[in-house]
Amino acid sequence: MALVRLLLLPVRAPMLLVLAAIAVYEGLQWSQPLEGAAASGMGQLSSLFWSLDCLHALLVVVVCTMPDLLLQRISNVMASSRVMSLVITLLIVTVGGLYLLHLKVLTNVLILGSTVLLARLDLARVRVAPPPLILAGALGGLVLAGAGVGRWLASSG
Fold first, then answer.
1. Contact 27/147 with Cβ under 8 angstroms?
2. Pair 48, 126: CB distance under 8 Å
3. Tens of pLDDT along 107-128?
4. Could you write out the three-class secondary structure of the chain?
5. C-alpha span between 69 and 98 (Å, rounded)
6. Where are the beta strands (DSSP E) in the chain?
7. Residue range 7-46, pLDDT digits in tens
8. 39 Cβ partners below 8 Å, 6+ apart?
9. Are 123 and 13 in contact (CB under 8 A)?
10. Would you call 25 helix, strand, or coil by DSSP?
11. Core vs surface per residue 63-75: b (16+ CB within 10 A) or e
């Protein structure tokens, strides 16, 4: 019975299917440096880009899946002193802003992050609430599998 409920989860929570579709689309976009790098004989550089994009997607999934735990840990460190609060705030704003603006990944972060949050909301609606670490692993696996399918579609087509 539990296996049937697990198999019917994408029907009960359709935002999981939307998350998978967004992940395939992201994988199609991530593979574009792959084509240019393969043509010039720089396959290792394209695999480095792929690894960074996967790491980036996993970071977005973890932050969007466990925001309460992460914010609690950060606020505990920031509450220890004003200096730590200032240093952490400046570090987050500066590094995060440079990363999002310089690498032009702001749209990808917003799309993937909002889709992960909507998938979490849909799972809460159908009363499926695994522990945050398991949910982050499952959604991360879904995103990486979808991106892998997108990369495969781009390379074969």
1. yes
2. no
3. 888 899 999 999 999 999 998 8
4. CHHHHHHCHHHHCCHHHHHHHHHHHHHHHHCHHHHHHHHCCCHHHHHHHHHHHHHHHHHHHHHHHCHHHHHHHHHHHHHHCHHHHHHHHHHHHHHHHHHHHHCCCHHHHHHHHHHHHHHHHHHHHCCCCCCHHHHHHHHHHHHHHHHHHHHHHHHHC
5. 25
6. none
7. 888 889 999 999 999 999 998 888 665 445 455 556 677 7
8. none
9. yes
10. helix
11. ebbbeeeeeeeee
Joined tokens for residue 43: 């396959």
Is 81 in a helix, a strand, or coil?
coil
pTM of this structure: 0.80
The Cα–Cα gap between 110 and 60 comes to: 9
Q: Which residue has the tokens 């980036």?
A: 56
Helix axes 132-156, 32-39, angle to 10 degrees: 50
Written as six digits, the tokens of 19 are: 């998350």
> How many other C-beta atoms can be found within 10 angstroms of the C-beta atom of residue 32?
12
Structure tokens at 4: 């049937």
